[in-house]
TrEMBL record:
Gene3D superfamilies: Phosphoglycerate mutase-like. The keyword Transmembrane helix does not apply. Its EC number is 3.1.3.62, 3.1.3.80. It is found in: Membrane. This is Multiple inositol polyphosphate phosphatase 1. It comes from Nymphaea colorata. Belongs to the histidine acid phosphatase family. MINPP1 subfamily. GO terms for cellular component: membrane.
């Protein structure tokens, strides 16, 4: 889910800014793990919710 991943990365960069040892911005390494688009029923509710359809 590319948009959710990009949002998670932006959040993590802000959250850990100045708290690490990487580069001039003192960034900290972190990982973002996402599910496949097919199993993401929360972000794609319009594909799985009968009421919405």
């Amino acid at each position: 889910v590319p948009r959710a991943s990009a949002s998670a990365v932006a959040f993590g960069l802000g959250l850990f800014s100045g708290k690490g040892s990487l580069g001039h911005g003192r960034h900290r390494a972190f990982s973002v793990v996402t599910e496949s688009r097919a199993s993401d029923i929360w972000l794609r509710f319009y594909d799985t919710c009968q009421t919405y359809k």
